[in-house]
Amino acid sequence: MPLASFVIPCRQHLRLSRYVVSPLLLFALLGACTQFPLNSNTSTPHSTSTAPSVYQNSSNKTNSTASARDPVFDGLLQRQERVYRIAAPLIIKNAVLCRTQARPLLGFTAKNQYSYPPELAIAARQSLGLDERLQVMQILDGSGAMRAGLKRGDILQTIQDLTIPTGPQAEPETARMLSPILKNLTELNITVIRQNQPITVNVPLTLACAFAIDVGNTQHVNAYADGRRILLTRGLLDSFTADEDVAVVVAREIAHNVLHHAKQLQQMATLSIVIDNLLLFKPDQVAANSSNGIKITPEKMDMEADRLALFMLTRAGYDPANFTQVMQKLAQAPNSPQAISYQTLHPWSEGRQSSIQATIKEIRQKQSAKKALVP
Predict the structure, then answer these.
(1) N or C: more exposed end of the chain, with fewer CB within 10 A?
(2) The pLDDT of residue 68
(3) Are 134 and 154 in contact (CB under 8 A)?
(4) 218-233: per-residue pLDDT in tens?
(5) Same domain, yes or no, for 196 and 329?
(6) Is residue 348 assigned to a domain?
(7) Cβ pair 121, 38 in contact under 8 A
(8) Regions in the chain scoring below 50 on pLDDT
(9) Is residue 5 one of the residues assigned to a domain?
(10) Residue 198 in 3-state DSSP?
(11) CA distances to 233, 280, 324 from 108, in Å
(12) Whole-number mean pLDDT of the chain?
């Protein structure tokens, strides 16, 4: 959905079509090369989460009308918002557990009409009032942007007195412009246009785990982590109606990245190719369904990821008690016969189940003793 403020852009994504949401501005603003390709399935599950609210909806309204709504575009936005809502507490509350992979973040995304595929450009203009200028889209609860009072619909004008670019290349140009000035700052002065009036806010940077949280445009149920990014498939989001269930998967993939498992298995490049494909507007579905040479995760690594993820979930305010149930659901998740499954890549075992229960017991004991929730 990753989300911190970086200095170095995600160069690998530059090879992707510009009709995938550009990662560069999101990288500069949120620290994640977060992109959300077109979702061809317009039915979006409603969350039954009891986790803390982590996505801020502004009271600002656009001039859209019911007749102007595009169900495909609305489905895309709903999935974007759901990923941010679920991921926000995991990346913000677990900076200490992400070790050297934590970075400061601003906590918002900004897009313009060129951030979406041409097929959705009209919907973006009508539903959101997007034009040539970059407009604030998502604001994460707990971030500096939320505390500073930034609102959805605010149009970016300047950051540190630098004029924000407009047009088709606004996102990458803004990211390149911001990169050199973010190294030694703890907050940024941002001027936005709100209701046709300029407003300047001081946005504090907030330390968070610096991983992209992406949504892949395929219906099969799976998740991938390549060391710097995390990808949840559209099928996985559609299969789990509770945010807590999706949070378990996100936490596990964050843990795999923190523990450098893709690097240890020498498959960072392989997983990056898989993620890059699924981020495309029209991914190669044959490649998406195949294993693409991805190695099966050894039980020891999965147990390490389970343990770290359980601590992360608890620190983020999610209940770790349903962890085993989610893993069992993933093992039984329906997939096409051709598609590689989550269960194939992460075999469920009695050893993992026993380790998970032991870790939950350890967490409960630490909570009762008011000890730090660190593994």
Answers:
(1) C
(2) 58
(3) no
(4) 888 999 999 999 999 9
(5) no
(6) yes
(7) no
(8) 1-67
(9) no
(10) strand
(11) 22, 23, 33
(12) 80
Q: Are residues 202 and 241 in the same domain?
A: no
Are 230 and 290 members of one domain?
yes
The boundaries of the domain holding residue 237 are: 212-368
Residue where the block lists tokens 């500069």: 28
* Same domain? 201 vs 225: no
Residue located via tokens 């700052």: 185
* Structure tokens given for 7: 């200095």
**CB neighbour list of residue 132: distance below 8 Å, 6 or more residues apart:** 112, 113, 166, 167, 170
Cβ within 8 Å of residue 208, ≥6 positions away: 3, 4, 31, 91, 92, 95, 98, 102, 103, 104, 105, 143
Strands 212-216 and 229-233: parallel
Alpha-carbon torsion (7, 11, 13, 14), positive or negative: positive
So what's the pLDDT on residue 94? 97
Helix (H, G, I), strand (E, B) or coil at 82: helix
In a domain, 17, yes or no: yes
Give ∠ CA 262-264-266 in degrees, rounded to 5: 70
The DSSP-derived string for 232-276 is EEHHHHHH--SHHHHHHHHHHHHHHHHTTHHHHTT-HHHHHHHHH
DSSP states along 32-77: S-------S----PPP---SPP-EEPPS---S--GGG--HHHHHHH
